[in-house]
DNA sequence: CGGGGTGATGTGACGTTGTTATGTAACACC
DNA sequence: GGTGTTACATAACAACGTCACATCACCCCG
């Protein structure tokens, strides 16, 4: 029937937008079309307009974040794993701050809401493992624990990304926030601190900066 | 010598911007000029352009936030006061979410950085009172405690304001986050929980919505 | 008390943004 | 191989932030 839409153009538009974001260059319909080698019309056939492109960019951001979190190894210490997830999360925001901001400009509006849910599920699952391992209170709700944990990390990330706190605040307050959330959930303070510090130094702060596949 | 700039116009522009923000209506140079009854040029004499106007709007947002936090009464239980401050903070974000978003779009770029510092200082001072009262660890740093406390509150507020979490999450996770931060800082869990719940129900959730003086 | 100069303000125009109407060309199906 | 449907390029449109220019109000000084 119709002429098929070129999926490569769609991919190029999203990836180019992410690249411009990482370069701190303006992301406009024309700058995208020029770099990709198409016209601004392609943007409308694939995304319906700029809001649709941003939705796709946020989606891609959560896909990349999910990949990073999924790459965090699972050890037999779930609290350590939670800390490693937190470090990887904050490092993700630090490595590509403009993408992080774009993601949370409207994080509830994604092409595939599942990609954000999947990333968050890694947190919930780790919290549940910690609970089943006896590290957290038996009555603790892994979803609530993960939500508080995430809220703290997101708040710290946003304050750094928007320039309110210096970049060092991530390494300074990140572990402290993690320990707070997990001790509140039932972990024993001394043991929690040890696990968190182990997980933090073991995983975080590895990424040199924003990367664009290609 | 010269013709003096009308301070009333300046005030009207900032307050009108805040009002449009609260009404979820677009804040453009022309819509502002029309509503205030001037031309777009006034925007340039007073603020140098739209970025300058946004800087003034953020400033006004922090002034209002500071007023709200300063209105929180001081009791002889500093942990309860910290909870009341947290409740007032989150209620502020809930009452005027678009202003809150605008404030933290570039919270480090204000006309008078002191207004944000002053608001934050209320938190630090309460944390210090808690420490001196023996509720927090002697070695705890009030600044670090306040920063973690703020990061958690800001993260929760942003997740709600951007639609990721429902509005109920504020009352659901707010006290939990507060308890976590303060127990981690040294308070005794049971006593902390009681103080936080008392402070939260005593102060928060009072504002009916965004208000515009005049 | 009246000119002169300084600066705020209104008018109109410019470049850029997102968006869309129109024409064209390429693909899938009969 | 013809036909219809759809993606894409071109070009125009409305709205945005911004700025050059002209105008006017005000304050100091003679």
UniProtKB/TrEMBL annotation, chains A, B:
It comes from the Bacteria. InterPro entries: Homeodomain-like_sf, MT1864/Rv1816-like_C, Tet_transcr_reg_TetR-rel_C_sf. Transmembrane segments: none annotated. The keyword Transcription applies. Residues 82-166 form the HTH-type transcriptional regulator MT1864/Rv1816-like C-terminal domain. Keywords: Transcription, Transcription regulation. Pfam families: TetR_C_33. This is Transcriptional regulator, TetR family.
